[in-house]
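REVIEWER CHECKLIST
Item 1: Sequence provided? yes
Item 2: Single chain? yes
Item 3: Sequence as submitted:
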Amino acid sequence: MSEGKTRAGGTRSNGLAWKLPIAILLVLALVVVGGRWLHYRLTHVHVIDARVQADMIMVASRLPGWVSEMSLAQGDRISRGQQLVVVDSTDAALSDQVLEAREQTLQAERRQLQAELELAKAQDDSRVARAQHRRAVAEAALQRRQSDLEKAEADLARVRGLADDEMISVQELDDARFALDRASIELRRSQAELAEAESAVTEAQANLLNQQVLEASLLALDARLGELRAERRRAALEVDDRTVRSPIDGVVARTFIHQGEYVQAGQNLMLVHVPGAVWVEANLKETQLAPVREGQPVEIRVDAYRGERLSGRVERIGSAATSEFALLPSPNPSGNFTKTTQRIPVRIALENPEDRLRPGMMVEVSIDIRD
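Item 4: Structure as written out by the authors:
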């Protein structure tokens, strides 16, 4: 009986002997794991619902019309300046042709006016020169007639003196009087010719105003041509704007239209982005934000690539909570209030961005807050 009790007691002692070390090891493991977990929580900020982000560019149409060409699909690679969508430009092209015809007509009218102006300048200059020459001749003739009259008056006075002394005949006195009358008549005729020449000069100079009329017509025509050229540039711009081109070297993220659809001005056609030009946005709780600083290292794990870890750094901390950008704000006019922890966006730059990272992918980030 005593031997049986001794064996049972020995068995219990042996069981306790190997269980106790195991328990101690388990407790130590829990302490180590717990300590590491506690140390991690104290030195890192962990977010499990961060996302990969990129600059998504919305490509829109500036003008309405039917989509005549659209061959791209989601995921296609595109280059800067590449044709993405073509909106039918028949109306704009016809308008440009009409404007071109009008411009050619105005150009012909301008050439005609220019020719008329050059002809008028040549004729008017010649007419003015002839009139001025006639006036000069008339002025010279008038001066000569004036001299003749003065000579005739002097001759008559001398002849009269001689006639009083009866030194000449009556016939010679009559000849002197006749010469004076003829000189007076010639002087008046020269005066009339000079007045006529001056009138011709005035008329010729007045005709110069016709040149000003033609020049004004040319200026008005040039203004119409300038306006027409502006309309043509606008029509050409409308034709060019109906070919939508890529603003970047990137990838088509999504398309919103198909060939044959009618699009409105400003309607979104597709969404494009630059592959590899991505970052991570983590919405931190406001209670986690205090120790976070720009430049702190970040460990990133992408849900799609388990086991891989990427490196990054805190690039920028948001200046407002995400709730401020909600489409439907939640004011509290009634006074009933339930406090909700707000989220602050934090932008994390990847040290080695990769093309395989797609915008919208879920990632986990761990920010090392040890300064």
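Item 5: Key structural point noted by reviewer: Residues 90-164 form the longest helix (75 residues).
Item 6: Recommendation: ____
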